[in-house]
Design a protein that fits this description.
30% of the residues lie in helices and 28% in strands. By secondary structure, the chain is of the alpha/beta class. It has 2 domains: 249 residues, Nucleoside phosphorylase domain (Rossmann fold); 164 residues, 3-Layer(aba) Sandwich (Rossmann fold), CATH 3.40.50. The strands form 4 sheets. Strands 1, 2, 3, 4, 5, 6, 7, 8, 9, 10 and 11 form an 11-stranded mixed β-sheet that branches. Strands 15-14-18-19-20 form a 5-stranded parallel β-sheet, with helices on both faces. A two-stranded antiparallel ribbon has the order 12-13. The protein is globular.
Length: 427
Amino acid sequence: MFKVGIIGGSGLDDPNILEGCKEIDIVTPYGKPTSTLKTGKIKGIDVVIIARHGRKHTIPPTQVNYKANIYALKYQGCTHILATTAVGSLRDEIARGHLVVLDQFIDFTRRRDVSFHESFIEGNAAHTPMSEPFNLELRANIIKNCEKLKFNFHPKGTVITIEGPRFSTKAESYMFRAWGADVINMSIATEAILANELKIPYAAVAMSTDYDCWKENEETVSWEIILDVFKQNASNVTKLLVAVIENLKQDSQYIKNKIRTIPHWPKKGIMFRDITSLLKDKNGYNHMIEMLAERYKEMHIDIVAGIESRGFITGSVLAHRLGVGFVPIRKPGKLPGETISEEYELEYGRDKIEIHKDAINPGDKVLLIDDLIATGGTALAAAKLVQKLGGKIVECSFIIDLPDIGGKKKLENAGYKVFNLVEFEGE
């Protein structure tokens, strides 16, 4: 269900970290990644590790094949990417050895290929949203575990990514501070852009190793200083990544364990995933809502739109938790006001769903929600209804994905971001 890509290196090459460690040498359509892929398990979760600058740190920042690295992790089936990086501090309060859970970047590079879109498909200009470049759910997970491990950390920070390999001049360092950057490095913006294009949740843990060159009475940054501080604190970064990965497993498995499977319903051969067992469990239901609320609390959603009927159960409670309105999307004939409708194909025949004409205002940010994504037909029709009213879909969210049926991929191919808490293979 989960497979985590880790981009970094220092401290992560310890063979004891990965259970069943193997090395894979691959070539992508964009060339070779900057290192072989180390695969194995951490806390029972499949993990793939790439050394950003090569195993012996021989590849300068501009020459890193970022597209091959990100594509390789996607090709290996990674559902999340965690990155580690050394940064220079541009703020007094971010001391050497402190961790920063990055939330924004400024891209100050000039020579990099930062898009997989080498041409536009007719009718789809493929401009990737980047207002929140670091995945909110992963960031919340990292912050929670930094608190649990009692590390010195900062829950947010803007990183400016420069070309390198040279360090900044004092004039540049002062300018970056004036721009609002908190830390500086040479890699993260490029990775975040490419990961977002491939719709892989990406988050980065930055370790402050120096004060760049802006701070008086502090030694100017050097490679030796960076290495020394990073080596001293590499074990903390490793502990944090392991804790985050374990947390991903626990949260998902907890929800999955509350969902029962009923064989041969509604017909023979169907394995029905029944969420009523999750809903009746107060701890499970609450945990599910809190996980979703944590994910969406900073996305500035205006409306939660729930698809009939189980989307009402989750969507209305989540809307209340987020302090926003709720809109039902229903089968024909169940809404009393003036409606618009959208037809969609079923296995046998067609069906239709409707929404009130005044349910959504143009420009509203809408979260579309249902209990399960199977073929994707209903969800795609619902998304079209929202867009007909001028709403902007932030994400399509589900408790369960059935990946073998392909509905999630259908929504993603149509340009929508899709999230699910758990998945069950098979129908």
